[in-house]
């Protein structure tokens, strides 16, 4: 009898524990549902507030771009620091670039918007990429690509790109780098007189394609062009050569945008019909194959011209 009572008590205790566990789980589930509900409401509220702020931002940006507002949206007036509190990187402060990138131990400051746009490695040319190589193979190839030919291609680039950027407003400075260092080579700086123009150009041209390359624009600060540009480069006396971290720039046609403020009223950029590889586009373009026979004849003629130039330049070197 005692065993039976003990068994019944044990069963009742198990049942009681089971009911208590069930009630506990139910309460926990109800609490979890309530917590999720509150969290969803908070997220919904945050989302609505963010959408409202974004809408206000777009409206303020539109007013600023239309000239109805003198100041840009406050959301755009901020500076991003790579290493807050660290010493400022001297080269980045002057040229908006650094050979170490954002891995630099010093601080780089990126403005949210500014009058100056930077297109990194925008101008690309075989002569520019190989003019500083020293091996025999490259030296032989570079007989065909002296600085004059590289500059001739740059003139086409200058006229084509300047015309496109001028659609958005007055440009007060346009500089293209011919440095060897990768972080500077081909960098293109465009400074607008009006902040609105720079923002408009960024919104329209960023991520477009040009010459088979996707354009990546960023805003930057150039406080002084004279401090950014290598002062000895123009005189061909830069003792640092290809390791120089200041801007070595191409001379713009007719000295347009010269720091010496030379007359530029009579200058009209040449507008050529650019070859296919220099075209602007919304997406990458595929080259169209040329006629086989005409292409072969053209290649043969080009090979003869190259050989003549090589022979002539070798002769000049011997003399």
Automatic annotation (TrEMBL):
GO terms for molecular function: RNA binding; zinc ion binding. GO terms for cellular component: ribonucleoprotein complex; U2AF complex. A zinc finger (C3H1-type) spans 83-111, 224-251. Keywords: Coiled coil, Metal-binding, Repeat, Ribonucleoprotein, RNA-binding, Zinc, Zinc-finger. GO terms for biological process: mRNA splicing, via spliceosome. Residues 306-319 have a biased composition (Basic residues). InterPro entries: Nucleotide-bd_a/b_plait_sf (IPR012677), RBD_domain_sf (IPR035979), RRM_dom (IPR000504), RRM_euk-type (IPR003954), U2AF_small (IPR009145), Znf_CCCH (IPR000571). Transmembrane segments: none annotated. The keyword Metal-binding applies. Residues 83-111, 224-251 form the C3H1-type domain. It comes from the Eukaryota. Residues 270-319 are annotated as: Disordered. This is U2 small nuclear ribonucleoprotein auxiliary factor 35 kDa subunit-related protein 1 isoform X2.
């Amino acid at each position: 009898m005692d065993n039976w009572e003990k068994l019944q008590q044990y069963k009742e205790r198990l049942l009681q524990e089971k009911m208590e566990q069930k009630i506990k789980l139910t309460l926990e589930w109800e609490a979890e549902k309530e917590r999720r509900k509150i969290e969803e409401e908070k997220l919904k509220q945050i989302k609505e507030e963010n959408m409202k702020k974004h809408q206000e931002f777009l409206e303020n940006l539109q007013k600023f771009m239309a000239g109805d507002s003198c100041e840009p949206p406050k959301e755009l007036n901020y500076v991003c620091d790579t290493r807050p509190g660290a010493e400022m990187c001297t080269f980045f402060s002057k040229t908006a670039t650094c050979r170490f990138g954002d891995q630099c131990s010093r601080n780089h400051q990126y403005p949210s918007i500014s009058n100056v746009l930077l297109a990194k490695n925008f101008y690309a040319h075989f002569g520019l990429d190989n003019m500083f190589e020293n091996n025999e193979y490259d030296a032989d190839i570079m007989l065909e690509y002296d600085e004059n030919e590289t500059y001739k291609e740059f003139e086409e680039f200058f006229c084509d790109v300047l015309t496109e950027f001028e659609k958005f407003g007055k440009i007060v400075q346009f500089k293209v780098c011919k440095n060897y260092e990768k972080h500077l080579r081909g960098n293109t700086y465009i400074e607008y007189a009006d902040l609105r123009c720079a923002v408009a150009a960024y919104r329209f041209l960023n991520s477009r394609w040009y010459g088979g390359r996707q354009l990546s624009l960023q805003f930057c600060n150039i406080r002084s062009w004279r401090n950014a540009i290598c002062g000895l480069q123009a005189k061909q006396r830069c003792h640092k050569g290809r390791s120089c971290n200041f801007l070595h720039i191409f001379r713009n046609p007719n000295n347009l945008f010269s720091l010496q403020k030379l007359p530029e009223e009579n200058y009209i950029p040449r507008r050529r019909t650019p070859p296919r590889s220099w075209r602007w586009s919304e997406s990458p373009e595929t080259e169209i194959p040329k006629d086989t026979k005409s292409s072969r004849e053209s290649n043969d003629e080009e090979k003869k011209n190259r050989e003549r130039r090589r022979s002539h330049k070798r002769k000049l070197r011997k003399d």
